[in-house]
Amino acid sequence: MKTLKFITAGNVDDGKSTLIGRLLYDSNSIHTDQLGILQKQTKASQNGEIDLSLITDGLRAEREQGITIDVAYKYFSTAHRKFIIADAPGHEQYTRNMITGASNADLIILLIDARKGVTEQTKRHASIGSLIGIKKAVVAINKMDLVSYSEAVYETIKAGFEEKRKELNYDEVVYIPVSALTGDNIVQKSENITWYKGNALLPYLETVEIPTAVTQQSRFQVQWVIRPKDEQYHDYRGYAGLVLSGTYSVGDKVKILPAGFETEIVKIERHQNSVAKGQAGENIVIHLKDNIDISRGDSILKINELPQENNQLKTWLCWFDNTPLNLSKTYLLQHRFKTVRVKIQAIEQKWNINEWKFSTTDEIKLNDIAQVSIKTNQNLFFDAFGEIPQNGSAILIDETSFNTVGACMLL
Fold first, then answer.
1. Rounded to whole angstroms, how far apart are CA atoms 28 and 15?
2. Contact between residue 289 and residue 385 where contact means Cβ atoms under 8 Å apart
3. Which residues of the chain have pLDDT under 70?
């Protein structure tokens, strides 16, 4: 079964790190030596139990403040599936970190404190997950032990989220009442929540189906041109990179962009061995029939599977920088290994996350998400993020400081 990549998100102190710690601890996914370290470093509770949140709060600054700052990744497996977990920060000021963690997730767990219900950060994280293209969500209503495992509280929160769900793009939303601290409904069904008839969290994660992407058009951008120029490999010329989507096979007729030359693939190498084809997710070296001037950032594409080509773009822009967007400034747009200079021509609309609606604005500040129009100084070859996200995403860079100031999801 496909490895499940999921992200946890919620308010500060809603229990995200504890939830992940409980998942790992109760599924016996923590090594003995790691347990020993945790026992020494734990913030000992009155009953002497391990502070499970420390399993993911790995940075010193995080432990000092008692919050998650960066995205912490954990890997574990059960008899049924392998998992990659991203624990996202809850603070609004770290929303950009949450966006980074969510960019490759198949599923999002939205943690809600049963005492507080749906909050602005719940809406923010739900919106970001939906915008990035995550299709499955788990609303984990946590700290049920602090509300006497009340079914009424659970139903009220569920109804509150359902009101907003129609504005999001999730295909499936599952609600699970849990207590990460006590382990209720995390790995096994809780004896304290007998009114809940669904699965506990881990059994659900082990069995949830993540649709395999529909066969996509083939995309390959050159990361490195390999020319050894020594006696053994005097005539060697290969183009190394990651197959972003689709497949490439020996004999494929391809077009090189932006040059526009057409040629044929005569050889493909993977791990220094010749193979018949390369597929999405594999790093390969492509050899072409003709000697063409190809540089880093150029695209090798099947003749009948060409992407969009334009220097006028519309994109969702998530702003990462403390300095607001400057419409009079030139930025660098890095589309994988291709870098072009760009101007933001207009802010079309901003997503008002707290009210879940669009608004007009002339300013984009830290953590804002907006739809903007961009003009590049040369044509870009891209796909819509919703169709081929690997070829539909880019980052915006300040050309003076070289700070990454924004993430783009092309439309």
1. 20
2. no
3. 1, 29-72, 88-96, 212-215, 353-356
How far apart CA 138 and CA 199 sit, in angstroms, is 12
Q: What is the pLDDT of residues 102-126, one digit of tens each?
A: 778 899 999 999 999 998 888 888 8
Q: How far apart are CA 239 and CA 26, in angstroms?
A: 47
CA gap 343, 356 in Å, rounded? 28
Sign of CA dihedral 24, 26, 32, 35: positive
Asked if 145 and 151 count as a contact pair (C-beta separation under 8 A), the reply is: no
Check: CB of residue 90 under 8 Å from CB of residue 68: yes
User: Partners of 38 in the beta sheet?
Assistant: none
pTM of the model: 0.77
Other residues' Cβ atoms within 10 Å of the Cβ of residue 183: 18
Fold type of domain 308-410: Elongation Factor Tu (Ef-tu); domain 3 (2.40.30)
Distance CA 175, CA 266 (A): 52
**pLDDT per residue over 342-357, tens digit each?**
999 999 999 876 666 7
Non-local CB neighbours of 384 within 8 Å, separated by 6+ positions: 308, 392, 410, 411
Return the CATH superfamily for domain 219-302: Translation factors (2.40.30.10)
Range(s) of the chain covered by CATH 2.40.30.10: 219-302, 308-410
Q: Where in the chain is the domain with CATH 3.40.50.300?
A: 4-207
CA 104 – CA 129 distance, rounded (Å): 10
Strand blocks (E) in 307-356: 308-319, 330-335, 338-352
Q: Say what angle helices 120-132 and 95-102 make with each other, to 10 degrees.
A: 40
Cα(117)–Cα(88) distance, integer angstroms: 19
CATH 3.40.50.300 fits 4-207, yes or no: yes
